[in-house]
Specification:
146 residues, mainly alpha, Rna Polymerase Sigma Factor, Chain: A, 0% strand
Length: 146
Amino acid sequence: MVELKMTDSRKLLAEYVQTGSETAFGEFARRYVDLFYSTALRSVGGDTHRAEDVAQIVFVGLARTARTLLPEVMLGGWLHRHTCFVAAKATRLHIGECQKRVRAMLHNQMQTHQQPPKPTSPAQLQFQPMADPFTDLCLAPILFRA
């Protein structure tokens, strides 16, 4: 039964390559969507939105490279590996974006700490917030890592 399904999947992909049949590609995608979505979901740490993006990129990648896939390529294996590669790239991009945000936040905090607002009344002088000695210690590993 699995052999028949694999052959059918190969036929659907071949039909898509030869005729551009969206119906054939849609059926092929329906058969494998659970495979790459679950792989993507595990690979991106459970982030459903990023996993959906990864699955969509994998579909687009398959549509683009379907003509170049050799007949002996195991489609399930190819999809799994491609999903892992796309998910790893998406995770690297996400981490890079997070690091940029942290650097920007730290940069803004450092600028505000270097130029504190001057108190305008005696009441403000009395209630100035105390410097937190632990803030610098907590942020030091982030600063040295960046």
